Amino acid sequence: MKRTIFSNQLLPWLLLAPQLAITFIFFLWPAAQAIRHSVLRQDAFGINTNFVGLANFRALMNSAQYLNSLQVTVVFAISVTLLSMGFSLLLAVAVDRMIRSTSVYTTLLVWPYAVAPAVAGILWWFIFNPTIGVMPYVLDVVGYNWNHMTSKTDAMILVVIASAWKQISYNFLFFVAGLQSIPASLREAAAIDGAGPVRRFFDITFPLLSPTTFFLMVVNIVYAMFDTFAVIDATTEGGPAQATNILVYKVYFDGFVGQNMGSSAAQSVILMLIVIALTAIQFRYVEKKVAY
Amino acid sequence: MIENRPFLNLLAHLTLMLGVAIVALPVWLAFVASTHGPTDFMSGTVPMWPGPRLVENYSRLLETGVSTSGTPPVGTMMVNSLIMALSIAIGKIVISITSAFAIVYFRFPFRNLAFWCIFITMMLPVEVRIVPTFQVVADLGMLNSYAGLSIPLIASATATFLFRQVFLTIPDELTEAARIDGAGPLKFFRDILLPLSRTNIAALFVILFIYGWNQYLWPLLITTSADYYTIVAGIKRMADAVDGVPQWHLVMATAMLAMLPPVAVVIGMQRLFVKGLVETEK
Question: Which of A260, A278, B61, B232 is the most buried (most CB within 10 A)?
């Protein structure tokens, strides 16, 4: 709180006006529309609209496709989070041992953050292309017949790798910062007591890193759930047979391609509740830190 | 480092080199593909080393594009992307810094309400409210325009919080001194607050430029005229169109051009980039 303030009454509203106008027109109003449409149902011609209460939500909960999409999203988000964070932690721990070469390695590892998710999708799609890609060729040598256009598992692996790749730099930077904030004296003391590097990592470094790990977990889940639309659209388009149809992709598909407004609006509302819950977790727990 | 273990150091170096190789692999392969001709892919696999057609492929893309895909020359799409990225980055910074100034330095009715309205935008990413937002933009006649590409995306709770945080750390004495010297709020803002938040603005700009350049779903939906295609959204259209007649070398060259500006910004301004990344997550 500032003690010294200016006394104008009109000026602050003028300063806030652009931000508030955009917030109302492009954020709050559409969100309210989504909530309104989620309890309405239009007939096939768009002439009559009836209030149907929670029927759209009930229909979703009974829809095998929606439940499948929910399940796909959970598997996808967990896989992306674990793969990306695991790989980044390994690299961060390795960099933490370095003295002179830290900045070189950091530069070589941070740039994927700047690559658009859509472009990341295209790049991995090319590598895994069943006819000309490098990976299917290599996998063929070891006897695996890769085809993400027909195999559900292959398609999921492809989108997980493409999405996790893009997130490596972010996780890496935060893990390195987290590792550097752990006092060296603790690890030195453990070393004097005879604990080897592996023991030191699991008994000291990893527990003390838990605030960073928890924070990154939330960020990665949010990323996997909401920012990977472009990766899915550029690679599998939700297929084959709905195997990679995550929730944000389904909202878009049902709303724009399927033209099912009631269902799409209900899905939007569910997604909003998920974001609100995740943001609440982030503010409630990350601020306080998982501390020792 | 706690103790000297040469074997572990070697292992760490090997891990990092392998990590760098894995991270760089997709871009290397894309670069290699972009330097070959269309027939080089017919043999079954992609070549691993650059070919001779680097200049030819890129200059053709920038000037004429891939005519069969219905996308404009890549040069045009890059200019569109640049306009969108700059409008989003500058727009977000301008409206957020003025909002933060109003919230920190004035007392007025409904101040908290205004703050919460801005806060809520954090919980409404464009992906979850895409259909009604598209409807609003269509009703306002903003489809196929630079305004439609940028304005709906420039509300920013994160940037407002960041500037609020910065302003709260500026000592009250400075404000008092400015007032005694007869400075009004706008003069104080221009001559004291702006210069003091210069590095924060720069760091935020780097993050927001990347955010703006990499937008995909929004430009894909609201641009139907090829004049307004952005490169990140255009590349998908190109990849779809050439599915029948694979022109991988051109698609990959476009991918290289699409990632060049934001990657150059991250590498060239690494310090600001890391600062921006850490600050926006507070």
Answer: B232
